[in-house]
Design a protein that fits this description.
Helix content is 82%, strand content 0%. With 273 residues, the chain is mainly alpha-helical. The protein is globular and about 80 Å long.
Length: 273
């Protein structure tokens, strides 16, 4: 009605009136873009760092598998926690945990103290933190934008761009500095993501957003069915791990071939002398 006051508008009406690019959506957009950039820098740093310290493709694959397995195994629990606690605080906490773990990894690679089980443990903790973080993304977008489909599409485009840029940025950092610099930069992306989420002002969730709790076990069963139905949640992790393993095998093979050629040339020169 023409005489309806702005005070009678619900959260959805207000979001629609201010458009997609509000202050809070911009903060969330930056948080997701920089976090994805850091996540896609990690495999290059991990592969280069492990190879430089004498580990092979199997060790790199094991470290990546620790992250992927913990994420896949615990993301359902993350969804149940997201229904019971503040998703914003859970995401900030997950970013803070990964800030610490990646800073620790940077110190390990910088000092040369690289132990496989410690790197796998860091990967497992990162996977668990990602499992707590990811369910909050889906529930946050509807609270920031009236056009959820457009908002999700915008974020996915930014994440895709970051996924393409991440390995290139990591390669440059490895070339001009070291793998430790990439881990430090990765930790910085989590710090920036946590800061953006800390500044975020989320409106209250719409009534009926979460259905009534069926109990912890039943909620887990429902969450598992939803997880299996949304293949994009886990396929990115699995496919990216497979791609990394293939890239590491190629890199290791080339390094070994190059070393063998150098040794053969040295041997020939010695014989000729």
């Amino acid at each position: 009605m023409a005489g309806e006051s702005s005070g009678d508008r619900g959260p959805g009406d207000i979001r629609g009136a201010r458009g997609l690019w509000s202050r809070d959506f911009g903060l969330f957009f930056v948080a997701r873009a920089v976090a994805k950039l850091g996540d896609t820098m990690l495999p290059v740093a991990l592969a280069a760092g492990m190879l430089r310290h004498g580990y092979g493709a199997g060790a790199v694959g094991l470290a990546m598998a620790a992250t992927a397995a913990c994420f896949a195994g615990l993301v359902v629990f993350g969804g149940v926690f997201a229904d019971r606690f503040s998703t914003r605080l859970l995401m900030i906490g997950a970013d803070a945990v990964r800030l610490v773990t990646q800073s620790l990894a940077a110190v390990f690679f910088l000092t040369g103290r690289v132990v496989l089980w410690e790197i796998c443990l860091i990967g497992a903790v990162n996977g668990a933190a990602a499992a707590v973080f990811q369910p909050g993304v889906a529930s946050t977008v509807p609270r920031l934008a009236a056009d959820v489909q457009k908002a999700n599409g915008t974020i996915r485009v930014a994440e895709s761009g970051a996924q393409l840029a991440g390995p290139a940025v990591a390669g440059v950092l490895v070339g001009v500095a070291s793998p430790a610099a990439v881990f430090a930069a990765h930790a910085g992306t989590y710090a920036l993501s946590a800061l953006c989420l800390l500044l975020l002002r989320l409106p209250p969730a719409a009534p009926g957003t979460h259905g009534p709790s069926l109990g912890f076990r039943k909620d887990l069963a429902v969450g598992w069915r939803e997880f299996r139905a949304r293949t994009w949640l886990w396929s990115d992790k699995v496919l990216y791990s497979d791609t990394l393993a293939g890239g590491v095998v190629v890199s290791e093979t080339r390094l070994r071939m190059s070393s063998s050629r150098v040794r053969m040339r040295s041997t020939r020169r010695i014989k000729l002398a």
